[in-house]
TrEMBL record, chains A, B, C, D:
Molecular function GO terms recorded: nucleotide binding
Domain Gfo/Idh/MocA-like oxidoreductase N-terminal: from-to ranges: 2-120
Domain GFO/IDH/MocA-like oxidoreductase: 129-237
Organism this protein belongs to: Koribacter versatilis (strain Ellin345)
InterPro entries for the chain: Gfo/Idh/MocA-like_OxRdtase_N, Gfo/Idh/MocA_Oxidoreductases, GFO_IDH_MocA-like_dom, NAD(P)-bd_dom_sf
Protein name from the UniProt record: Oxidoreductase
One Pfam family, short name: GFO_IDH_MocA
Gene3D superfamilies: Dihydrodipicolinate Reductase, domain 2, NAD(P)-binding Rossmann-like Domain
Organism ancestry: Bacteria, Pseudomonadati, Acidobacteriota, Terriglobia, Terriglobales
Amino acid sequence: MLKVGLVGMGYWGPNLARVLNQSPKCEFVAACDLNPRNLDKITRQYPTVVGYRDFDAFLQSDVQAVVIATPISTHYELAKAALLAGKHVFVEKPIADAGSKARKLVELANKTQHTLFVGHTFIYSPPVIKVKQLIDSGDLGDIHYVSLSRVNLGLYQSDVDVVWDLAVHDVSILLYWLGEKPIRGAAFGRACVQSEKRDVAFLWLEFPSGIIAHNEISWLSPQKMRRTCVVGSKRMVVYDDMDSAEKVKVYDRGVNVKEPSNFGEFQLTYRMGDMYAPYLENAEPLLREIEHFVACCEQGVIPTTSGEFGAQVVETLEMVNRTDVASWNTSTMSSVGAQL
Amino acid sequence: MLKVGLVGMGYWGPNLARVLNQSPKCEFVAACDLNPRNLDKITRQYPTVVGYRDFDAFLQSDVQAVVIATPISTHYELAKAALLAGKHVFVEKPIADAGSKARKLVELANKTQHTLFVGHTFIYSPPVIKVKQLIDSGDLGDIHYVSLSRVNLGLYQSDVDVVWDLAVHDVSILLYWLGEKPIRGAAFGRACVQSEKRDVAFLWLEFPSGIIAHNEISWLSPQKMRRTCVVGSKRMVVYDDMDSAEKVKVYDRGVNVKEPSNFGEFQLTYRMGDMYAPYLENAEPLLREIEHFVACCEQGVIPTTSGEFGAQVVETLEMVNRTDVASWNTSTMSSVGAQL
Amino acid sequence: MLKVGLVGMGYWGPNLARVLNQSPKCEFVAACDLNPRNLDKITRQYPTVVGYRDFDAFLQSDVQAVVIATPISTHYELAKAALLAGKHVFVEKPIADAGSKARKLVELANKTQHTLFVGHTFIYSPPVIKVKQLIDSGDLGDIHYVSLSRVNLGLYQSDVDVVWDLAVHDVSILLYWLGEKPIRGAAFGRACVQSEKRDVAFLWLEFPSGIIAHNEISWLSPQKMRRTCVVGSKRMVVYDDMDSAEKVKVYDRGVNVKEPSNFGEFQLTYRMGDMYAPYLENAEPLLREIEHFVACCEQGVIPTTSGEFGAQVVETLEMVNRTDVASWNTSTMSSVGAQL
Amino acid sequence: MLKVGLVGMGYWGPNLARVLNQSPKCEFVAACDLNPRNLDKITRQYPTVVGYRDFDAFLQSDVQAVVIATPISTHYELAKAALLAGKHVFVEKPIADAGSKARKLVELANKTQHTLFVGHTFIYSPPVIKVKQLIDSGDLGDIHYVSLSRVNLGLYQSDVDVVWDLAVHDVSILLYWLGEKPIRGAAFGRACVQSEKRDVAFLWLEFPSGIIAHNEISWLSPQKMRRTCVVGSKRMVVYDDMDSAEKVKVYDRGVNVKEPSNFGEFQLTYRMGDMYAPYLENAEPLLREIEHFVACCEQGVIPTTSGEFGAQVVETLEMVNRTDVASWNTSTMSSVGAQL
């Protein structure tokens, strides 16, 4: 059974520890953290886990796969070292704090022939998977546009702004659903509370197929919203993660264009049909994610959230940031949106 | 009592006829429409109203004030003629299909010393007025940003796209609330159903004070949303027009920044207080609007929704349209957002 | 075409006048009201309608069908006189203020071979009809129970208490859906604001098939609720009239009982399937109701809301009132619930 | 520090174990369960806890307080033995399966001068406490009535019916809020899925002050509802536990009765004011409950959910069950509602 070690026991690490311990598909054998208190807590809770304060010593243990849940700025160096040490690597989202670093990790994983996996957990959640199935089956027709809102009050992150903290989720969902990478994008935001860090932003994205997307993200909003609307030519879907009863609703609604019989105008008719909310199984995304990672390591399968996938997410964030409102008054820009 | 005549009995005109007839503040004496069937219907329902098929004859009657509810492309010519004939003018929103025409009407009204009023009805609705009071009182603190969503399925307009049809409402609300005109703006949209006409768009606006705003508008959305969120440094407000019980909710929530005592980081603390939903009186906006128009005509007061106000709305729409996504690939643009 | 006359232009009458005028299926020819102002208003709005202050004169006109929208206490006398004058009769709900009077009207209508119709408008509304279809099709399986809530603040009625004002709606819906009349019932309520008149009540009903029902009604409640839940052995339905988007939701949910394989306990398994909200056409119940009345008069068909149906509604209200809490301390009662 | 032992590690016990371990106010020293697997799990998770399979041995340990979380039918015997052994006792709700047994426990605790505490956890939850404060402060005026709904699909209990499983919560909340015990009550329900056990029921209660209450409970309902409405003469409150954002809403609404100036009718006017949702702290009820228990043991204070309180809850359930619909046809009953 795959021996897995975990690096980073801060905010998110303990959740990964729980599922690593819970899953019968892998063996949780080692943990690494600079902070001895964090380390103690984990090794006390999981007595069979060996604790390491030194990352090199950790890498020299018999762990076959390394799960990295440290601050974003450290992802690149830790993942690189783990790959070079011949380990499979699971790195929390985003894969790195720059697209160029992400690309280097992808190349390195190709060279070492080991799994490089990015922890975009939403991709393993039942509602996100259900919408993906609806899109791929053709039930929705051609996708016209996607609108995503992810706002609430807090939690401010100390190391990144709201785009890197929240849009990373929505961009990963978009790339997964649409299976393509945006060719143009822009961001518009404001640093309201702290002078250097945007806490609200609005993103525009355009995809090669012509689909457009919009993403509203905020740490400074009175009501919590986790709402996504996918509008297709045949059907429309609303995925509302705050709706505890029906997270995904499929609307049999649309507009039909009738060819004008003679020189008249185009006629539009509205199609108003039933709505249905498919039953969603009650699976834990994090457990699913870890077990998919283990399966990829053992069978050499390419992960749904591969290093390549994670790199595209980071590149998209970089692209939209190149055209933030702060640069509107720099007349040197030659186009509204940045292009990849 | 002010004698009022109405031009245009199509989709919206009958509503204006109803309140003109209902109000004790004015006398509804004349109606004008090219279509004899529309005209007949009105004069039968309001027997004291004289019907005119000819606009010139209508202008030569004893009406003192003219209410124009015709297609947008005709607003300019009809309003101009009415002003030149020495009438007060109420013209439906938007005031004209171009900022330059709007400006000419404003100048003309100044010259003739008559009231020029634009029918931005939302400005007279209880929840919009309540939010204005909250902003002006300082209860919300400094405004950080405003996010507005106005989406549903249909109704497609034959003469204008979704920006001119729906954003006109939100832009008027923004200008009223903030009391300033945006200095930068851009739009991003797509013509999904008909090749020439956008049915979904996302607008960005930036105001001189630094406030930013976002507006999502769509004719192609499965759920109807009429939601506006105003985030201030002290309090936050959600105005949801689809909530039949509590349209305005005021949240005593925010983020406080504590000065770092020594070389440490800034500390953020969240303020989570009560929410309250002020009682809103049950007044009809349209009736209020007409009675404000009548009062302006009679007392020479400047309307809340003056010609100047309506011109600024049209100029804002023109500004955002200058930077639509369609122009992203034209490398001749020198800046992301258009500037006034 | 059937010539129809309307009696009573108070609170509800003008709505009936509007649809009588609007429908192409009948001719609205006469109106009767004691109050000359009410009468004037109607005859001015509908100039072809002849106004009568005297009911006998009204009955001697050429009206073939009489629509009665007067206070409840007058229903019996007016309906009786109209039937005796050889007219078809539409009487607003409830048909009379006592079951015995309702029965006399039913007998009289049988004798005169004219239509006796009760204005239970909800029976003609799209969501109520949709639930009826779901029940009758067997889609819901056997019905276990129905729970109905109808509460809000106001409007207090001057002539009746909350049971006669609000439960009349829910009881009519229940009788229509289930096609049977309750054999037992009781009410529990309180007169909170006025000493003699209950403004909140809870009703229990039991039907011959074993189905039970509960009805919560109140004039004294802060949130408006119009919610009905029908629980069947195969599926469950929620009909929420306050939900502007999806009034009827069908849940493929339930509990299955597995026979114990050996001496063990019965095993229960939950069935959690999709939910769907059928599209409901946007028809006006009042217009449908009036046109069904006209069709019944002309074709001799028995109305869905016949005199017999209306009498059963009144008898049910009388039954539950016989066991109100006020009588709990009378030790002469021999059973908890009243029996018909 | 108080040494606490826990009996019963089934469905609910592990939650109690967690807070006993978490609280700095007590020492979690012993656990007792017949099932060695349950016991192993707890002692492995909390290595300092000593496990006992034998209840007598457990009682002979140095535990000073015993927390009982076993099936209802065993509450009486275990609590009795613990009290006789000189321990303080926390017993899960309901205190016993019969009022007579509850009374014996109360007497025994009085005699032994030890704390007898019943685990009615809702009484320690922030929204329930907030409503209690609103009632006690007089802000709501005189309470007219309370309506409580607690319905969802499952979980069927194997040992009790829906009244003992769900109404126990609502009755405890009612007794806590109103500070009085009902003098009359009745239940109406149906055993839909299993022939012997009611899975839906409707309860009526009347209190000495004249307040009435209604409770709808069901294991067989498609939507989850946890809604309580308290109607007072001055204000009204809705406590909706399913609302993740605002659980308690206070409405400044009501009806005023104006004395008739002369022989006229009473005039009613509606008061429609603001709504507000007080901020509720994010405290865990279970932890609060355990810490209140510890304080009572140590300081000899009478618990909010004392044995007396728990006995009144059980007596209320017994009272309403005496008049279930099943007994409607027994003509020997002399009154509609049972009296205590």
